[in-house]
Design brief:
The complex is a heterodimer. Chain A is α/β, with parallel strands linked by helices. Chain A has helices at 21-30, 63-70, 92-95, 115-126, 130-144, 159-171, 189-206, 217-223, 241-248, 264-270, 296-306, 319-329, and strands at 2-17, 33-48, 52-57, 78-83, 99-103, 177-181, 209-213, 226-231, 234-240, 252-258, 277-280, 285-290, 309-316, 341-342. A seven-stranded mixed β-sheet of chain A has the order 5-6-7-3-8-9-14, sandwiched between helices. In chain A, strand 8 and strand 9 form a beta hairpin. Chain B is mostly helical. Chain B is built from twelve helices and two strands. Chain B is globular, with a radius of gyration of 19 Å. Classes of the chains: A alpha/beta, B mainly alpha. Chain A: This is ABC-2 type transport system ATP-binding protein.
Chain lengths: 343, 264
Amino acid sequence: MQAIEVHQLRKNFRIQQSRGGLKGALQDLFAREYREVAAVNDISFTIPQGEICGYIGENGAGKSTTIKMLTGILVPTSGDIRVNGYVPYLEREKFVNGIGVVFGQRSQLWWDIGVIESFQLLRKVYGVSESDFRKRLDELVERLELQELLSRPVRKLSLGQRMRCELVAALLHNPSIVFLDEPTIGLDIVVKSEIREFLKELNRTQGTTILLTTHDLQDIEALCSRVIMLDAGSIIYDGGLDELKSRWGSGRAVRFQFGKAVTAAELTAWTGGLPVTWTQESELVATALIPVDTAVSDLFSRVLGAAEVTDVQISETSTDEIVRQIYSSGSAEKPGAGGILHV
Amino acid sequence: MRIAYYVGLIWEYFTNYMKTRLTYRADFWVEVISDLLFQATNLIFIFVVFAHTETLGGFTEAEVVFVYGYFMVPYGLYSCFINLWNFGDRYIVKGEMDRILTRPAHSLFQIFLENLDPPSLIGSAIGLIIMIWSGGQLGLDMQWWFIPVMILMVIGSTLIYAGIYIILTSVSFYSDSPTGIIPLMVNIQTYGRYPITIYNRVIQIVLTWVLPFAFVGIYPAALFLQRQEMLTMAWLTPVMGLVFFTASLLLWNTGVKRYRGAGS
């Protein structure tokens, strides 16, 4: 069964056009001009149960607007949504029992009361039985090491501590789908990787479907088998992360340092038959560029067998770099490839 | 089942309110005392007026004080449970409505719960005391039906308050910026606690049918004072309460669908 089905989903916002100056402000007082802006522009996708899907895009690309429609906060302008078998905004109160939501920028917890009291309050709001609650809380608290934090008021927690509590708060009622809007924003590396590990485990052991938006591509690399990339309200890529890399990545660069001087002719001779391009920095240093589908080991066996190598460095086009390229070109169409990629 | 759930939630939020509030004890008492001082000045105003005249719109001093006492009861309940003061700022501009909408209880109800103000209930209690005291001065005999009718009327009046303010608050969903209409309303609501007969015809109609604040003071109180001329109006209190409250819920439920969220 599909956890999330979205078809031709669109959200328009009416934006007031302010005219400049005092005269403009006075005009605005009587007759306002509005402009319709499509924050989300007829997008379609489905996410099967148990998948971790990354939802990425620049600021203002429409990620949060989509998440808010999927969680029942916003009503779409047009299009169909089904999440967990519900149309979110129609049966909101029943629907939200089956989802968990974490907004990195906004707290779900009550500021002044202890963490455990916030959890108790949420237990009541979601109507979770005391025994289920205990069991679930014990698991989560142990997993995320929150024992000492439980009695502290939320306002006295650090951001990392708070975020771990937010995760617990979103999972107490055992939702089958979890939406995370920038869950790792502002966190240090240790907490980030803890949260990633936790989410991965949650997905593996409970089969929880996870949809997360993030600007940190390491979140995506660590968690997601699938990526949906959004630009200006439209989907520009939907598919596997590996596929994205191989389409866009320009291959790998292997930098060799030699013990003895080598010539350009020698270099090309060693790797004859392999699709390798050499660039020589000096007599002792040269870099080989190989495409993604060529194994580095082939290159190694040729070069190491023929020359005296003192050092090797391999570097890959990073996802960050790929995504930056795509953002700046505004589409995931590699020159030569046609249309939006659906893999 | 659903009612038990909501009553349970009221209790949970109430105990949490107490826990946080009692840690700032001084603050708690300052709020209670300033509330009471505010009510006291209103009462003193009534006494000052009656130092110059015998009756006001056909009502004696003790009767007007009785009406004021009645007014305090639903007002206290309304202030405790239906606190929409900061709605526009907190829930629309700052976008806290997002959080409300991801939880499985009615959105308006959650907002009421998050803004409970139990100290206001002290005002209701004092209102009751004023009613009993001025009723004694008027020689009103306690009748068996006073208590059930009082409960019915107070519920009706509170629903009218709720209805009017929910309608006004729902406007936040339709207009871009918070409107300045609420302070005006706070001013008008005080008109309802004086005998409506002192106002001109237009204001009477407004206070009865448009912004029915006469139903949170003078009309229902007149029932206990046995003023025959307002009897029908008094019995209309629960009806008006239901009508306004239902209308306001409909408006709210439609308004929520227009919520646009804040930020990205």
